[in-house]
Every structure is written in C-alpha cells, then in structure tokens.
Amino acid sequence: MTSDRRVVVIGGGLAGLRCAARLTAGGAAAVTVLGEEPHAPYNRVLLAEILAGRYAPEVIALPEPGPALRRGVRAVRVDRAERAVHCDDGAVLGYDTLVLATGSNPVLPPLRGLFEPDGRELPEGVHAFRTMDDCLALSAAVRPGLRAVV
Ligand SMILES: Cc1cc2nc3c(=O)[nH]c(=O)nc-3n(C[C@H](O)[C@H](O)[C@H](O)COP(=O)(O)OP(=O)(O)OC[C@H]3O[C@@H](n4cnc5c(N)ncnc54)[C@H](O)[C@@H]3O)c2cc1C
C-alpha cells in the first residue's frame, strides 16, 4: 500500500481503533475512523467498573488517534460503485479500502410488553448495557432503595 491509499474504518471501538493505529503507524495509509459515539474512545470491557463507582470514565479512555477519528459521526450508507461512505453529518468520504468494525448491538429478548406496538425505543426504566451512554444513564438512575432486575 502507498501512503495516499485511503482507508475508512467504520466503528471507533477497540477493533477499529487498533486497526487504524496499525495502519497509521506503518504510514501505509491515510486512515479515517468514523465513530458514532460522542465520547472519547474507551475500553468497553471496563464499563461495569464505572457503574460500580470504582473508576471514573476518563480512567478507561483509550489512546486518542487524533484527527483520524471523527467522533459523533455515523456512517449511514455505503456506495460501493462510487467507493464512498455517506455520513449523518452530510460528509461523503471516498475510500480505497473500507473496514467494518461496527461491533454488535445488544440482543433484546422477545419479551411481551417490552416495547409499545411498533415502538423501537426501550421504555423508561429499562436499560441495555453496552455503551458509555447506557452506563451513564444507569448510573443516573441509581438511588437509595432502587430495586433492579438484571
Ligand atoms: C459491559 C461489557 C463488558 C464486557 N466485558 C468483556 C470482557 O470481560 N472480556 C471480553 O473479551 N469482552 C468483553 N465485552 C465485549 C467487548 O467489549 C467486545 O467484544 C469489544 O468491545 C468488541 O470490540 P469492537 O471494536 O469489535 O466493537 P465495539 O466495541 O462495539 O465498537 C464498535 C463501535 O462502532 C460504532 N458504530 C457502529 N455502527 C456505526 C456506524 N454506522 N457509524 C459509526 N460508528 C458505528 C459503535 O457505536 C461502537 O462504538 C464486554 C462488553 C460489554 C458491553
């Protein structure tokens, strides 16, 4: 690869950032990482420690990849013919190589009554636990006498 080779990585989690760091360190490519989460990159594995109050969010931060990471930007469409990624902020990024490092979504069980008919948002008081936002929302919900079912 030459250094003018454009790599777009969709997903600013552990996998996407590690991949970008390797490619950037070798000078092999001009890398852009799209990360829909607005937070500084973090080690998801340690989220429970934040919820438990053992760590502050900044303790689990991953090394910032600098301008390579476009935080808070979601890829919404891939145009394979044009080799371009369309983002929710209107940007269109051309690529030579596209990396999908989008992780996973929590599987929500098919529990009757969990969603409103045709609803897609979890109701108040029901949380998934995958992201920093989930963790902060759960922390904010904790109060003395709270009863939780996991
Ligand atoms: C609470 C918790 C504890 C865990 N503990 C462990 C553990 O102890 N050991 C272990 O091995 N694993 C653990 N895991 C699993 C581990 O965190 C994942 O395997 C790992 O984070 C996967 O990394 P990833 O980069 O592939 O995906 P992710 O970390 O999920 O990162 C993917 C990123 O891509 C972003 N993204 C998705 N779609 C788009 C899009 N269209 N545009 C832009 N960005 C997008 C997502 O928002 C996310 O930030 C745990 C997970 C959780 C939630």
Question: Could you explain the architecture of this structure?
Answer:
The protein is α/β, with parallel strands linked by helices and 150 residues long. The protein has a domain at 6-104: FAD/NAD(P)-binding domain (3-Layer(bba) Sandwich). The protein is built from 3 helices and 7 strands, in the order βαβαβββββα. The longest helix has 12 residues, at 14-25. The N and C termini lie far apart (48 Å). The structure holds flavin-adenine dinucleotide. The site of flavin-adenine dinucleotide (FAD) has 23 residues, from α1, β2 and α2.
> Radius of gyration over alpha carbons?
18 Å
Question: So, CATH architecture of the domain at 6-104?
Answer: 3-Layer(bba) Sandwich
Could you give a short account of the major beta sheet?
4 strands, parallel
CATH class of the domain at 6-104: Alpha Beta
Order of helices and strands: EHEHEEEEEH
Main β-sheet, spatial strand arrangement: 3-2-1-7
Q: Class by helix and strand content?
A: alpha/beta
Name every ligand kind in the structure: flavin-adenine dinucleotide
Name the features.
about 150 residues, FAD/NAD(P)-binding domain, binds flavin-adenine dinucleotide, alpha/beta, 3 helices
Reconstruct the topology from this structure.
Blueprint lengths: L5 E5 L3 H12 L4 E6 L11 H5 L17 E3 L3 E5 L4 E4 L4 E3 L2 E4 L31 H10 L9
Parallel strand pairs: 1-2, 1-7, 2-3
Antiparallel strand pairs: 4-5, 5-6
Provide a brief overview of the structure:
Helices cover 18% and strands 20% of the residues. With 150 residues, the chain is α/β, with parallel strands linked by helices. The structure holds flavin-adenine dinucleotide.
